[in-house]
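Are you able to produce any protein sequence you like plus the matching backbone structure tokens because I've never seen that pairing?
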Amino acid sequence: MITLYQFGNSVCAQKVRITLFEKGLEWEPREVNLFKSEQYSPEYLKLNPKGVVPTLIHQGRPICESTLICEYLDEVFPEPKLTPDDPYDRSQMRIWSKMVDEGVHEGTTEISFSAMFREKMKSLTPEEREKRLHNIGDPRRRMRFTSTYEDGVDSPFVLHAIAAYEKMFKTLEETLSDGRDWIFGDRHTLADINVMPYAARMVYLGLFDVWNADRPHVHAWWQRASALPSFKDGISDRLTPQEISDMETYGPTIRDRLREHRAGHVAQLLH
């Protein structure tokens, strides 16, 4: 039995759910409510000391970190294969994983927070807000959330997010410009699955074209990716109406300011 400790609108959990569906595996969901800080419960921290989702339990053993979980699933359940056959291509696939894990993931958190969760935190009492920030065990994460709460889309961490997304979408456009359908050719791999939830979040927030107004290959890739049955099972079919409504409502409120920051970043790259 496979058990997945998850949160519905977590981009990392979405990535793992896509992989589970691609493999045709049966699994049991265990919801960890991030808004109630259930990820910091002593019971959950025994499984995942970082206090993040998802955590996969297989054969009684926990596997943490979504990128590692997806590679684990591809090794243990090799069909259908979701990694390139060539060793060099597999190393390049992991470049995409690193690009997401080392920049885009945090960037998604900052953009989502500045658009949606910042407004929710404003409605908390000072005591409740301090408790939420105190529960974040990692000092760097606490600093990021505090900065984004105080400065919103003008936080330096949101500027880092804009740059991370620019790098990812620029690289994706260039990679697909030779006519291929997917990052590594005619079949999607974990490289594409790594990117899907992060692109999806920007689509749901109404922010996708901040980066991709003039990137036709990225748009075509998105149409293919979002039509996959695994995408629907892993992401779109599992979002609640309230989650969709929140993203569609709050995302556009920061769009103009994001465009300004992104234009400034691109201008700097051209000099």
Summary: Strands lie at 2-6, 27-31, 55-58, 61-64.
